[in-house]
Amino acid sequence: MENLISRYRNVTILAALLFGQVLGLAIQVKRSTENRPTRLIRVWAVDSVTPLERGIVRLQTGASTLWRNYFYLRGVRQENRDLKQKIQQLEIEQARLSEDAEQAHRLQALLGFKEQFISQTVAAQVIGSSGSEQSRSVYIDKGARDGIKPDMAVITADGIVGKVLRVFNRTSQVLLINDQTSGVGALLAKSRLQGVLRGTPSGEVVLEKVMSDETVQPGEAILTSGGDQIFPKGLPVGTVISSSPGQDLFLNIRVKPATSLSRLDEVLVVTQQEEREPAVADGVRLRAADILAQRLPSVPEKSPGELNKIPPPTSGLKILPAPGAVASAQTAGPASQKPSGSTAQAQSPTAKPAGTGPADKKPANVTASKPGLGATQPATLSKPVVKVPVTLAPEQKPQLEPAVKPPAPAPDQPTAPPPDQPQ
Amino acid sequence: MPITYTSNEQVEVYRFSVPAAILIPLVAVFLQAFVPLKLHFFSVFDLPLLVVIFFALARRSQVSGMLTGAAIGILQDALTPSLPIGVYGIVNTVVGYAASSLGVKLDVENAGSRFLVTIFFYVIHEIIYFSIARGLVGLTLHWSWVHELGSAFANAVLAVLLFAVLDRFKQRT
Questions:
Q1: Does A12 contact chain B (CB < 8 Å)?
Q2: What is the pTM of this model?
């Protein structure tokens, strides 16, 4: 027996090596469903390879930055002009979209929806890959000491990239969305059909679990659905390349990722997501007040010394703050402490308590001596003519007390000021 | 460029300094992980496999060949997050053993034999890898002869160049 082993020593060692590795492999495969800590050998391997990668990437980035920012500045002026033009176009687009977004927020608030949003990200540099065609993953230069944790979403400005798989001290492994073990909850932007985004062995991305009786058009955008609890809802995923009937009554939808996964350079790791009810500016009601305030002539702010020189009014209305208004004004932010001299804001029936919303930051442009504003009926002004249906909440109604009662009309009746009255 | 049968007496056995034996595999694994980020086509190459073949052919020791293959393979596995450790380890162990066994019997010092040997072992490597990945790990992989033979050819071309460079680190025993 001893002779046999010594005679076949090399084969015996080979068999022992293979048996040991197969055994280890089987144990890992069996336990792969459990959430186990990272093996030490992976830590060693990563620690031995990534410092060099990090150093080279930093050197390369530094040299590239030096070249781009200090030497190669050809065409910058033209680019600057183009960018300015683009900014103008985007501002116009933004103005249009903000109205839609505001409306959507109001509807969400009405329906009690909660919105997810990314509240904190960490920028990271891609410094390496797995080096295998079968495993699509990259290494980034941020790790546990930067607050990175497993299962955090990794994105770029273009769309999603993948999720953090393993975290080391100064490095993390990111599993890309085109890896075949990856899965992302996604939905089609127009039809709102939900599916699961997966990678294929060849590195393509497909959308699965969409029933074959649905119609999916090439070019349709795909967004994250938020169902995987990793990616926030609504991030760009990619676009449909083709759609064909697949196996098991599901469509075979090929997807072009929004981010170029083979040319990743810098990414963002979403370290914190929050869920909140959409904050709604009191848009519709305030907008009327804003319009009114903007159209009325304003009174320049005066210093307290100047205010003291002004003789006491002999006519008009004296404003008494509503109960609680003084306290709220004292505790409110700077906006509410402005010397406004306004009745439109103070009397605005729709105004929120001071310091609680955007309305408080609006400039107050309406004089205190303007009677009629804040009444429960539409205010009619001589110039310009703006009809604003307003309603005062009882606790917000300022009490109007005429210093000298005008003969007519009664104080609760809205009237237009005399045409010759200075405004 | 003939591939000649040689007796054991005619075969020269080489050894490598400790720094070279450690650094060459590490640099190969590093380049394999880093270069595809900048040059995407580089992922076709398998530098760690080429280093395993080179060491095995040069040392002509089966034990040394399989141990080198196991070490480099496990290092590769450790950098591949979606694979359990051992897939590349097993494959490279077998390749290391087989290459060193072949190195004893064949003259693999010339470019032609190196080219053919690399093509052969690359295909063997891929077959074993696919068998393990599908049979033991349960991965879904698609075999394409065109892709594999193309990759084998590309790796063989690179191997001829790489082996010529690595020959400088050889030391006669």
A1: no
A2: 0.59
